[in-house]
Inverse folding.
């Protein structure tokens, strides 16, 4: 009591924070009692996992035609959804930037972005499967919604951080609003925008392998079917292919970023790759 | 040319930054506005092209009252008012040429601007101006690769690209070293003379103002307390403008 009242104590006890920590600890204990988690289940699960992994090897690529078709469809879903999503996210993101737009424009746009972000792509995919039927179209639409949410939000945030001095100068020349956007705003956010787009393509590629589980096209459907038929060796083949696809996508994204953001030309990059293959004798000396 | 009457501006009601400013800019050449920091010099200059909205008063320019112009017509008026900024305010990621051509945006449709379709005359004029400001050969460099003095030259060239009938400069030399400051002032003076347009500059440096200005306007406490040619600017008047006297020694 007397310490809490001391006026100059720099480390005064914060009872609110202590109370919150205590509540959190109590909730964790309560939640784990509800979840029926026990060591027996974990050890049994480990045993099952070993069995499952054993059946996965060697991977079975004999039905590769189905595999390639699924991957192709996933890739198409990812690319089309990214293109459509980016195209729509540009104006929506611009409209929701509060430093450029009046509240009556930015609030509806923000609402749109928030609603696009509030559901996981798989849930959105279920809705679109109901709406447009099974197949890739549902997947494309679902991932387009996800792209609008992600890029729209980040794009708007990037615009809200720009230097308004540059915008002011363009505005002072008497430029119409859309020209101010083209010369004062977009140049400041362009490289970040490219960054968002490549991340989104990356993430769409990943998600496009998943929406198939709910019937929205792509490799996911094949994967789910193989699981249900206990074709674990084929499952393994599919997983390996997905990993390869994602890795290729990532390399591609890195190259796009290097070209647009760091201004490296393709020839430079090739040259750098090749020279890094050569053994480097000077490295030891440098490390010294 | 430019006639300011009873101009008032308060950011907070009841605390005017500009109190009843009357200023007539008719002559060609440089008019320098001097005065202590926070006395409203910048606000005054920015009220003219309404980067800052005036609270009351009139600003007559080319037969129109700028204060009462609706937004759409204000754009048209702004095309004839060039502006140079203290921190250059170039679009950093655009090239020097793009920055210069942005001075033409008021005359070019947005559709053409997006596709960078400027007329051949505009481009020719831009190259010519680069020559005038001593930056020929820099057209494809990005603005963020330039030094302060070079940036301000681009800033001036951008303003002149508008072919303005008046040029405003908001502390154009405050971020520059003394030598570059003189060069920039010389450039502004040359432009004022060659193009026959009035240049209104607000600045800190009294010596620089005396050296280059044809007319000096002294402000203190949001009001104009001196208006005349540089020789009339005595230590006494400086004392009225800035207050105190220890700094004059």
């Amino acid at each position: 009591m007397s310490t809490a009242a001391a006026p100059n104590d720099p480390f005064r006890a914060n009872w609110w924070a202590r109370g919150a920590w205590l509540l959190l600890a109590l909730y964790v204990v309560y939640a784990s009692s509800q979840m029926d988690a026990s060591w027996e289940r974990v050890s049994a699960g480990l045993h099952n996992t070993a069995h499952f992994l054993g059946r996965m090897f060697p991977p079975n690529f004999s039905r590769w035609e189905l595999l390639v078709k699924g991957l192709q469809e996933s890739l198409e879903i990812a690319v089309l959804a990214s293109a459509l999503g980016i195209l729509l996210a540009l104006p929506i993101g611009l409209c929701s930037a509060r430093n450029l737009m009046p509240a009556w424009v930015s609030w509806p746009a923000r609402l749109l972005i928030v609603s696009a972000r509030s559901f996981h792509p798989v849930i959105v995919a279920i809705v679109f499967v109901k709406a447009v039927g099974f197949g890739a179209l549902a997947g494309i639409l679902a991932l387009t919604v996800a792209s609008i949410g992600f890029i729209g939000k980040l794009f708007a945030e990037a615009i809200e951080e720009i230097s308004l001095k540059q915008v002011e100068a363009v505005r002072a020349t008497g430029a119409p609003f859309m020209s101010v956007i083209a010369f004062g705003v977009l140049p400041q956010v362009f490289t970040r925008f490219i960054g968002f787009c490549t991340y989104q393509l990356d993430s769409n590629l990943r998600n496009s392998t998943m929406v198939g589980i709910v019937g929205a096209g792509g490799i996911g459907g094949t994967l789910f079917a193989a699981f249900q038929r206990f074709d674990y060796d084929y499952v393994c083949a599919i997983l390996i292919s997905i990993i390869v696809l994602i890795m290729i996508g990532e390399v591609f994204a890195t190259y796009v970023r290097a070209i647009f953001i760091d201004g490296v030309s393709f020839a430079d990059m090739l040259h750098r790759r090749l020279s890094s293959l050569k053994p480097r004798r000077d490295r030891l000396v440098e490390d010294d | 040319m430019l006639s300011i009457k009873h101009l008032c501006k308060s950011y907070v009601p009841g605390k005017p930054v500009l109190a009843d400013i009357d200023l007539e800019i008719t002559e060609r050449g440089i008019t320098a506005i001097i005065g202590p920091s926070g006395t409203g010099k910048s606000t005054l200059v920015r009220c003219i092209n309404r980067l800052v909205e005036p609270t009351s008063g009139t600003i007559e320019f080319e037969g129109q009252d700028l204060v009462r112009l609706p937004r759409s017509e204000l754009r048209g008026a702004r095309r004839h008012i060039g502006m140079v900024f203290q921190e250059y305010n170039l679009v950093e990621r655009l090239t020097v040429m793009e920055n210069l051509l942005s001075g033409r945006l008021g005359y070019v449709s947005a559709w053409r601007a997006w596709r960078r379709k400027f007329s051949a005359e505009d481009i020719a004029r831009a190259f010519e101006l680069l020559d005038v400001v001593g930056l020929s050969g820099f057209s494809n460099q990005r603005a963020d690769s330039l030094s302060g003095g070079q940036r301000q030259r681009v800033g001036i060239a951008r303003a002149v690209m508008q072919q303005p009938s008046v040029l405003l400069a908001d502390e154009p030399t405050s971020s520059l070293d003394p030598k570059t400051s003189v060069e920039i002032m010389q450039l502004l003076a040359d432009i004022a003379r060659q193009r026959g347009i009035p240049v209104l500059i607000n600045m800190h440096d009294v010596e620089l103002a005396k050296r280059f200005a044809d007319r000096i306007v002294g402000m203190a406490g949001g009001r104009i307390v001196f208006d005349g040619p540089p020789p009339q600017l005595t230590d006494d008047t400086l004392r009225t403008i800035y207050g105190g006297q220890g700094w004059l020694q």
Notes: Chain B touches chain A through 32 residues (CB under 8 Å). The first strand of chain B starts at residue 2 and ends at 9. The mean pLDDT of chain B is 91. The radius of gyration of chain B is 18 Å.
